[in-house]
Every structure is written in structure tokens, then in C-alpha cells.
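Support request from a user on the community tier.

User writes: "When I paste my C-alpha cells into the form, the page sometimes reloads and wipes my input. The last time it worked, I copied everything first. Here is what I submitted, just in case something in the input itself triggers the reload:"
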């Protein structure tokens, strides 16, 4: 494909009003399979204790095995979660930021009934050194609750670009309260610049050769800004598009791959026809951005354009979850037939 605008036409399959929609909504788990792994760094935190104490650890990079190693030694003077029993059951968890979903979490074993746990465990990440140097290490300590109501006990965040890699010794570090950079920064996935337009059936007049017998939704993906920089060279990104509830191959469209750029320009237009005006209340346009890799593509962020009612053709679906900005954008399109509506929408984890 050239760098000029490309256009793909596809007929929207609107006949999804039977209970079979349920299978289509479950198909979304495979389309956005990362949703379970893109939870907040602090998911599951039900505690209200203040961070205190220290943690002893060392960092090393094994050049031969291309492996980042976090040697977690021990903690001292942690906060007590269960005051009645005077106990905490702590463990240590690590992420690599800004995109914790890419490398995943690592965690130690749980040490019961102690505020001075000893671990002597090594948490390992297979990662290239150049990629590691644009990450931050988030190391946090948690109380493990048997019912899953885990409590945050403190954390430390390490900028690996400025880390002294000649220092392989165990050192003590004070645990701190939640980091605003971790809370806010991890969810910043970039911004998509796009325009959408709805052409109602027969609205262009009988004399117009392109007058559609059924309605059309036009989606013009212009560019994306500030994608997560997963490699020093940037990312090789492309955009996928589905019109839900249809997750078939016929519904699936994608742009070309833009290489080594965290601000890719796509200039790609997709046209879905077969749209009746009433379908706009029940359909949802899902646009997701992916990093292209040889073995598997990696999710970067996405948007869902719809009314966000939680329902599609009377059936409850988890993907009808548009944000206020996304809903307003879709509503503006519905109210302005045959007009391009421009928008700048933040990518989210879906």
C-alpha cells in the first residue's frame, strides 16, 4: 500500500439479533485477550495501611542469557495489616513499566505471619539490554489475603536508564507510598486522530451514482501520537478494526504497518455498508493499535465508538463500554448525517 489514503469497503452483518450474539460477545475475549493482563498496577488493593519499612534487593543483567535479574532478599518493619492478630503475610511483586502487560509480573512466595520476611529469591525477565534501559522497575510489597483482598504495603520505583549496573550488591531501600507516575503513567497509551461519517440509506439523492441503498459508516484513521515506546527504535504499529457484535473475518479490517515510529501516520479509510440507522444504537466500532512482531502482535491500546449502554440488540455485552468522550463522538456522528466528525481520542486498555 502507498502512503496515500486507502479505502476498504465491507458490508456490516446486522442480522445478529438472535441469542447467538452471546457467542460473538465471548469472541471478544480473543480479539482483546490482553484485557485481563492490562489491569492497574494496584488491582486488588483493599488495604488502608500506610507504607513503612524497607526492602533489600539487588539488580543484575546476565549478558550471556540476556536476562534481567531482581534478587529479592528480605524486608524489615513492614506495616501490620491484621491488627487483631498482629500479622501480615507479605510477598514482593515486580513489573517493568511503562507497559507492564508486555513482560508481565513476577512475584515471590508468600511469607506468613511476619513483618520481617526473608525471601532470597530471584525474579527473572528475558529481555534485551537496550530495551531494558528504557524501562522502569516497579517493586512493591503486598499482604496476601486468602480471599484475594490483598493490601498494598509499599513500593520503590527504579529508573533503569540511570541505574549503576556495576552495583550488584544487596542494598536496603525505604518503601514508599503509591507513585503517581505509576498510577497515571501506565495508563497513558497515546491518542488517536480520526474522523467518522454516517451516510444514511438513499440520502445522497437518486441522481448520485454513489447513493448507497443501505447506510454506510466511514472511518478515517489519520494518525496516532505518543504510543508506548517498547523498543529504542520505536514500534511497528498497525490498527485493527471490527464492528461489533460481528467479530467474523468479514468484519475485520486493518491498516498497513508503520515501522519504527511512536507517532505513526496511517491515513487509512474503511467503509462499512449495510448499516441502517437503527443499527447505530446497537453496534460498536472497535479500533485497536498493535505492535507487529514475528511471533505475536502486542496490544498497545484502543477505543470503542458506540453509545456505551452495555446492551446490543437487547443482550448484555461487556464491549459496549464506551467512555463519555467516545459516546459523545458517536452521538455527534449520528446527529450530523453525511458530515465528517473529527476527533482526538485517548487510547485505553479495553
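"...and here is what came back when it finally went through:"
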Amino acid at each position: 500500500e502507498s502512503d496515500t489514503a486507502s479505502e476498504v469497503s465491507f458490508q456490516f452483518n446486522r442480522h445478529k439479533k438472535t441469542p447467538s450474539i452471546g457467542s460473538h460477545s465471548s469472541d471478544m475475549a480473543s480479539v482483546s485477550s490482553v484485557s485481563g493482563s492490562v489491569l492497574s498496577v494496584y488491582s486488588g488493593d483493599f488495604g488502608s495501611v500506610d507504607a513503612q519499612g524497607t526492602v533489600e534487593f539487588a539488580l543484575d543483567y546476565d549478558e550471556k542469557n540476556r536476562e534481567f535479574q531482581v534478587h529479592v532478599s528480605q524486608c524489615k518493619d513492614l506495616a501490620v495489616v491484621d491488627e487483631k492478630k498482629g500479622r501480615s503475610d507479605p510477598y514482593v511483586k515486580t513489573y517493568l513499566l511503562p507497559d507492564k502487560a508486555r513482560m508481565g509480573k513476577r512475584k515471590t512466595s508468600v511469607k506468613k505471619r511476619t513483618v520481617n520476611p526473608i525471601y532470597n529469591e530471584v525474579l527473572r525477565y528475558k529481555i534485551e539490554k537496550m530495551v531494558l534501559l528504557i524501562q522502569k522497575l516497579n517493586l512493591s510489597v503486598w499482604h496476601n489475603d486468602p480471599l484475594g483482598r490483598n493490601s498494598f504495603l509499599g513500593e520503590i520505583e527504579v529508573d533503569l536508564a540511570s541505574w549503576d549496573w556495576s552495583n550488584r550488591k544487596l542494598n536496603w531501600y525505604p518503601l514508599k507510598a503509591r507513585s503517581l507516575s505509576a498510577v497515571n503513567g501506565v495508563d497513558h497509551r497515546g491518542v488517536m486522530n480520526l474522523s467518522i461519517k454516517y451516510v444514511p440509506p438513499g440520502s445522497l439523492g437518486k441522481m448520485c451514482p454513489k447513493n448507497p441503498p443501505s447506510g454506510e459508516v466511514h472511518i478515517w484513521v489519520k494518525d496516532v501520537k505518543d504510543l508506548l515506546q517498547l523498543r529504542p527504535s520505536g514500534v511497528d504499529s498497525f490498527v485493527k478494526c471490527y464492528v461489533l457484535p460481528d467479530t467474523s473475518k468479514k468484519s475485520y479490517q486493518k491498516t498497513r504497518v508503520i515501522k519504527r515510529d511512536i507517532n505513526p501516520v496511517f491515513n487509512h479509510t474503511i467503509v462499512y455498508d449495510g448499516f441502517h440507522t437503527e443499527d447505530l444504537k446497537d453496534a460498536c466500532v472497535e479500533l485497536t493499535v498493535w505492535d507487529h512482531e514475528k511471533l505475536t502482535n502486542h496490544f498497545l491500546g484502543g477505543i470503542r465508538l458506540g453509545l456505551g449502554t452495555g446492551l446490543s440488540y437487547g443482550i448484555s455485552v461487556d464491549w459496549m463500554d464506551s467512555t463519555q468522550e467516545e459516546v459523545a463522538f458517536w452521538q455527534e456522528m449520528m446527529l450530523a448525517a453525511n458530515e465528517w466528525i473529527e476527533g482526538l481520542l485517548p487510547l485505553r486498555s479495553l
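Agent notes: The reload is a front-end session timeout and is unrelated to the input. Helices lie at 21-31, 100-103, 129-132, 180-185, 324-335. Residues 87 and 113 are 5 Å apart (CA to CA). Escalated to web team.
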